[in-house]
Structures are given as C-alpha cells and as structure tokens.
Here is the input.
Amino acid sequence: VKKLATEMQKLTNFDDEAILGAENLLLTFTKIGKDIFPQATETVLNMSAALGQDLKSSSIQLGKALQDPILGVTALRRVGVNFSEDQVNVIKSLVETGRAAEAQKMILTELATEFGNSARAQADPILQLKNSIGDAWETIGFLLIPTVDILSVKIQTFATEVLPVWIANTKIIIQY
Here is the structure.
C-alpha cells in the first residue's frame, strides 16, 4: 500500500499521506481484491482530479460501487458516470453468476474512459517537488528521533535533578 502511494505521488499532485488515507478507506471495503486495488487507487485519484473533490469522497464513492457493483452503477450515475443499459445488464449478470471481480473491472474500465488519466494530466512539477521535499524532511525527522529522545531525557534530568540543586545553592549564596 505504501509503495503504491509513493509511486502515485511521483505521478500526481497528491502526496503519499493523502493517497494512503484514500487507500485505507478503500481497504474498508472487503470485496475489493488485491488484483483490483491498484487500479481502484488510481481511479480514486483520477476521480478526485476530474471532479475537483477530495480523495475521501472519491474513495467512498468508488468503494461503495466496487463493494456492490449493481447498486454502485446507480450511485456513480449521481456523479455523472454514464453506464449504458447493456453495461448495467452485463454487470448484473456477472455479479449474479459469482463473477463480481469481472463486474468491478468493467466499472473501473468505464471510469477510466470517463476520467482517463486526469490526476497524471494535472500533475504540477512544483507541487511534486514540494511533496518530494516534504518526504525528505520526514526522512530527516525520523533519523533525528533517537537523538531527540536522548536529548529529551537529558533535559528532563537537568530540569528535575540538577536545576533544583542549583536553585537551592543560589539561594544559599544570595543569603550570605
């Protein structure tokens, strides 16, 4: 999941944390299999880019559609995705004959037709650079955690053990 988010960040304006959030929402829909998941993730990004909506909304819309393809077709119509009557009938038939994954692929194919590579097409090199720099700072931060932990313990020790002694001794010196 993280690897896919990192790959998609390099191709779109979305940062990997936002993509991970979208992926985590998709993972709550238990009927989305591992073979469908990468395409579903990219579809969420394309939907968000094309529709100008957040990743959470797109993840929920697509997740519901893939969880229950028959009802999903109807739900997707509300956001402007048009399925022909023949497509709807094929999707129903696939689900009824236990071939839900094929129905999901059919939905994803139609969404690819509707939204194409919107997220990649809108990719802005400046935003992508910003995301890369943010990732570099995160890496540096993770490398500094052990040092910060040690420093934190030393400061706490100083504040609770050394400083009170200094204050007490300073009072004694001032009194003389």
Observations:
- The chain is about 80% helix and 0% strand.
